[in-house]
């Protein structure tokens, strides 16, 4: 029964995903079938091995893919190291807590041995994020491949990432600029079902919040005490987004209903008139969240994808060729 349910969901997902129109014509589900048939398997095995020894890295991979796609498109720009002439995206304060680079390097090294110069770093990251979601208990889905790697990675571009202090209209505007609907933005925010934030990302809610409130009134008072305790260990102390930090589920949305959203940008989804109903829906119906999330992830993975000579296949994900 469980197996047939699983197959049923998988089939429906396949049909929907293959029905999506890819903005990028050169991408396809079986892009590596002829010239690197084991590419998907190599990435999946590498991710599974890494997550078995450190399950918290699933969150790192999903976040890294998001930060890659939002800046200059999904082109592996977030993976590039700084040089003496260029400070790269990864050295921006907004990216300093990104994790999982070594998993991408590991997969890349194996792929370069099997099929040199074929599989892009951008594709490896997109596949790794997809595999991390599934590994953590989230939906299974296929993604089109064929992204090329970019040659630009600049710290100043990270200005275009959303901030934890954003309210729902700021979020709607920023995600709208990338072509996402309100519903897709709320579904993508559900990635915060995985992982943690550091105190520096939410401490503004705990004291001197605004001219009339010391503590953010949108925060449950017991949860506020928990956060203050976490922050007593310093700005880098970590607080999970929800009660199941390594499991991909809808606990994040149920936390928002209890006023236990970690960032302002999380809790605002319950306050905003255009987002509230969607939060309630996902809190009640995990299958609906999974379904919307996977479609929004496939769409995010196609943001400003570089094809043909507009990009390259890096030999080392940390350096342009
Ligand atoms: C809606 C706007 C968003 C804002 C303002 C935001 C902001 C943040 C912040 C501030 C952190 C914690 C960083 C730290 O303290 O070290 C974080 C973590 C995280 N974000 Fe987002 N994020 C957003 C959307 C997304 C999206 C769309 C995804 C993926 C699809 C995502 C995936 C994650 C994950 C998985 C973590 C945990 C990372 C870890 O544990 O290493 N976020 N986000």
What keyword list fits this structure?
binds protoporphyrin IX containing FE, mainly alpha, 321 residues, Peroxidase, domain 1, 12 helices, Peroxidase, domain 2, single chain, hydrogen peroxide, EC 1.11.1.7, heme binding
Describe this structure in words.
- With 321 residues, the chain is an all-alpha fold.
- It has two domains: 169 residues, Peroxidase, domain 1 (Orthogonal Bundle); 129 residues, Peroxidase, domain 2 (Orthogonal Bundle).
- The chain is built from twelve helices and two strands, in the order H-H-H-H-H-H-H-E-H-E-H-H-H-H.
- Strands 1-2 form a two-stranded antiparallel ribbon.
- The longest helix is centred in the first third of the chain and has 18 residues.
- It is globular, with a radius of gyration of 19 Å.
- It is found in: Secreted.
- This is Peroxidase.
- Keywords: Calcium, Disulfide bond, Glycoprotein, Heme, Hydrogen peroxide, Iron, Membrane, Metal-binding, Oxidoreductase, Peroxidase, Secreted, Transmembrane, Transmembrane helix.
- Its EC number is 1.11.1.7.
- Belongs to the peroxidase family. Classical plant (class III) peroxidase subfamily. Belongs to the peroxidase family. Ascorbate peroxidase subfamily.
Question: How are the SSEs ordered, and which strands pair?
Answer:
Elements: H1 2-19, H2 39-53, H3 57-70, H4 101-114, H5 121-135, H6 168-177, H7 182-189, E1 196-198, H8 221-231, E2 238-240, H9 251-257, H10 264-271, H11 276-284, H12 286-300
Antiparallel strand pairs: 1-2
Helix pairs in contact: 2-4, 2-5, 3-5, 4-5, 7-12, 9-11, 11-12
Bound molecules: protoporphyrin IX containing FE.
